């Protein structure tokens, strides 16, 4: 399902996963980091607590593989095979009273072409929904999503976004990821002079 953000779109997808198990695996990977096998993020105590990396945690092999398979399926259905490759996937834990500052995920991508996503294995009430922030002609537009258990949000790696204060009494757990465009997709976009490719919905060139 596509949702409009001032000229560009994000999409929502329902994942058929064991959400409760995945949530616990993210928490366990924070509590026992030596067992985590995919290290794309520094340990929380190795970075400034004002940095977005502070809330991040690396994932166990099994969690990484489960999420990659699920997101790969979404991307396959939307774009066909071999259009995107995984760059990184990590867990995100926001304690009560904390929030995620405004940021985007543009830094890891080749040629600036990529998509990012966030998945919620649970949705505590008042724990803070995902907000997108887009500036057009000097005017800033905020678009609020509605967090739901099992929901995946797919969006451009360049979109600024944040989550407000977690006003619940429990940790808000999510998993995020970045995918970059393959050579196949970049070649398709290079000759798409009328911008009809579905990728442009996310980047704004439609």
Chart the SSEs and their pairings.
Elements lengths: L1 E4 L2 E7 L4 H13 L24 E2 L3 H19 L4 E11 L5 E4 L10 E7 L10 E6 L2 E6 L6 E6 L3 E4 L8 E10 L1 H8 L8 H5 L3
Antiparallel strand pairs: 1-2, 2-9, 3-4, 4-11, 5-10, 6-9, 6-11, 7-8, 7-10
Question: Summarize this, please?
Answer:
It is built from four helices and eleven strands.
Largest sheet: 7 strands, antiparallel
- The total of helices stands at 4
Could you tell me the number of beta strands? 11
The share of residues in extended strands comes to 25-35%
How far apart lie the N and C ends?
Answer: 17 Å
From the structure above, extract its key features.
206 residues; alpha+beta; 4-stranded antiparallel beta sheet; 11 strands
What does the model show?
The chain is of the alpha+beta class and 206 residues long. The protein has a single domain (11-203), classed as q2cbj1_9rhob like domain (Jelly Rolls, Sandwich), CATH 2.60.120. 22% of the residues lie in helices and 33% in strands. It is built from four helices and eleven strands, in the order ββαβαββββββββαα. The protein has helices at 19-31, 61-79, 183-190, 199-203, and strands at 2-5, 8-14, 56-57, 84-94, 100-103, 114-120, 131-136, 139-144, 151-156, 160-163, 172-181. The strands form two sheets. Strands 1-2-9-6-11-4-3 form a seven-stranded antiparallel sheet. Strand 1 and strand 2 form a beta hairpin. It is globular and about 50 Å long.
């Amino acid at each position: 399902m596509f949702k409009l953000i001032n000229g560009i779109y994000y999409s929502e997808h329902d994942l058929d996963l064991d959400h409760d198990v995945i949530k616990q695996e993210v928490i366990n990977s924070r509590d026992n980091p030596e067992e985590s096998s995919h290290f794309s993020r520094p340990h929380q105590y190795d970075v400034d607590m004002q940095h977005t990396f502070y809330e991040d945690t690396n994932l166990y092999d099994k969690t990484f593989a489960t999420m990659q398979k699920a997101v790969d399926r979404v991307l396959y259905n939307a774009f066909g095979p071999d259009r995107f490759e995984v760059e990184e996937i990590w867990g995100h834990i926001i304690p009560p009273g904390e929030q995620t500052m405004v940021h985007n995920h543009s830094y890891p991508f080749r040629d600036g072409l990529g998509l990012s996503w966030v998945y919620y294995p649970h949705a505590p009430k008042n724990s803070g929904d995902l907000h997108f922030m887009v500036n057009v002609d000097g005017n800033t537009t905020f678009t609020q999503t509605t967090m739901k258990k099992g929901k995946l949000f797919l969006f451009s790696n360049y979109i600024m976004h944040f989550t407000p204060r977690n006003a619940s009494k429990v940790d808000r757990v999510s998993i995020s990821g970045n995918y970059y465009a393959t050579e196949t997709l970049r070649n398709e976009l290079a000759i798409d002079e009328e911008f009809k490719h579905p990728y442009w919905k996310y980047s704004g060139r439609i």
